[in-house]
Hints:
The chain is mostly helical. The protein has helices at residues 5-25, 30-47, 58-76, 82-85, 97-115, 119-130, 135-142, 146-167.
Amino acid sequence: MDRDKAAFARLFAYFAPRLVAFFTRAGLARDVAEEVAQETMIAVWRKASLYDPAQAGVSTWVFTIARNCRIDRLRREGRRSRTELGAIEDPGFDASGEDHLLADERDARVRQAVNALPSEQAAVVRLSFFADKPHAEIARDLGIPLGTVKSRLRLAMAKIRLAWEIDS
Length: 168
């Protein structure tokens, strides 16, 4: 992508509403979702020269930037991410004791499945899903190639899925 303003306008018109919906589903208020969508599109404009179609499709690239912008926004605000909270807090929803018990049981099953993984896979899962870190950052933090991060995540998720199916 070069810095063609007309092409960017078309890209913005296509992705902005989708980004707002993505952020809203992730628990952001509509006005905040719109702001983060704009921040995302600004980042897309600035990073356009870095886009490599051999690495990912445009949608994947844009939504990766979007995810990172959302994480940055949550960190700037000092709030924990949705993953850390476990669910979006809805002030209109009064969870019953049973709901809390079921959530605790589910969380325990997830922790048990992650703890059963080989340590290398468990570390990548914890960083990706619990610390909400992007794959590239995990690779850098662990000193391993990006492809290894993705392979470990794929293997770990297959094992977790299998363990979940066996327990259900």
